[in-house]
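Repro:
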Amino acid sequence: QVQLVESGGGLVQPGGSLRLSCAASGSIFNIYTMGWYRQAPGKQRELVAVITRGGTTNYADSVKDRFTISRDGAKNTVYLQMNSLKPEDTAVYYCNVQRGISRYDYWGQGTQVTVSS
């Protein structure tokens, strides 16, 4: 099993910044990707950003040039730096990892990000 603990969410004004962290523990070997998803009320969960074990990154069009995903292998942690936040970024943000040859999905408990208008 992989356990994921997110932190860094909170309330921020439009144009502000937040940095989310997700620390992985447990069976952390053979992790292929780590990423962030978000879900706003009444909307589908959507991919925000993902980083592979090789360091390749991909972003949703809505967050490109504003968000940056990174990994710290020594700390088994993935980060999401969020700049120029907009009210539409308000959502619960979930950390995700894919592990093993089957790329089984593990999820964190979520952290609330609220961008006030």
